[in-house]
Please model this.
Amino acid sequence: MESTRAKIITAAVRCFRNNPSDTLEKVAEEAGVSRRTLHRYFENRDDLIESCKNEMLVSCNKAMIIAYESDPGPIKKIRNMLFAAIEQGANYAFVKRIYERSNFSDLDRKKEFESDDVKSKWFNLIKDLQKAERINTELTIPWIFNLFGSVIETAIYAVESGDVAKNDSRNFAWISFKGAIGLNE
Amino acid sequence: MESTRAKIITAAVRCFRNNPSDTLEKVAEEAGVSRRTLHRYFENRDDLIESCKNEMLVSCNKAMIIAYESDPGPIKKIRNMLFAAIEQGANYAFVKRIYERSNFSDLDRKKEFESDDVKSKWFNLIKDLQKAERINTELTIPWIFNLFGSVIETAIYAVESGDVAKNDSRNFAWISFKGAIGLNE
DNA sequence: GAAATATGTCTCAAATATGTGACATACTAC
DNA sequence: GTAGTATGTCACATATTTGAGACATATTTC
Model:
């Protein structure tokens, strides 16, 4: 059974993702605990958000590292990382939004995130494919990185909104991402 | 010279886009007016947000209709609509986020937006291209629609974050979108 | 089943955000 | 320059959100 702490974090991620100003009352309700209990685990709002960031970052990184290592081929690696991120759903979306919104006080953390193992692995894969002219050489790597995140977010959102069936979504995402960077598998 | 009302709306769009719970104090400051003045133009927070929605919707729709009509060719129409949306920048991003976040009370408006002229024009363009097998037939139209919005948002964000130069951004967006839907120009 | 731990309920104080009135000042039109 | 309009400043009432204490109740552990 999920710990109370974990339940609260899951609830907070769901809430804050839509609306970063949801009240702690609502988060507690969503988690099925009282607000008083929430305060026993998290001193204040910032503490809660900080905890969400950390946990989600760990969760996403772990999933993507596993995906990275699941196949020796660079293209399969990238595909599986895409799938893993989509599978993370709300977790991934939360991290992405948080860093989009990040202000100066978050810059250190952002740098930390950016210099992260997973990201550099991903960068190297793309760099090599571009060097080998397997993908479009007009596009810059930062653009491709942003695009990768967007396609993932689109896939997550498309399912949540009911626009696209869950099974279709990850396939569409891969087809679209491949095409977008000019990759012929 | 921009009217005070317009200044406030512009500021509100910028603020609420990052953080929908920014205080009215901050919006006023961003607009360079006092909070008291803000309240003279907008009864309350809801009134302000409602006004932002309306104005941004009008602004985006107008820009995209002009783009639509700027060229007889369907592909150029789509490309120019993409460019127009990117050009709208914060305006477009605000509208997109608002509707992603929309709850039940917004559903009517959302439907209104969805049945909108611009969207149906866009849908028909894509539908025709797909029927003519000019673009990938595996992908569904709702997916392509979501993707279109994401690519636009990516282009806007990539410039704002400094990752990609402004001139590159819209070209990258078009290259990527074309590729993503399998369009050969 | 007793002790320890976790959670809920009720309560309250402090902080923050909001809406508005009263009046001063700046700007515009004529 | 004067009337009229727009805006700023200050003050204040109200509502909301937050954080925590005191104590009851439930759950776990031994």
Summary: The domain at 1-42 of chain B is CATH 1.10.10.60 (Arc Repressor Mutant, subunit A).
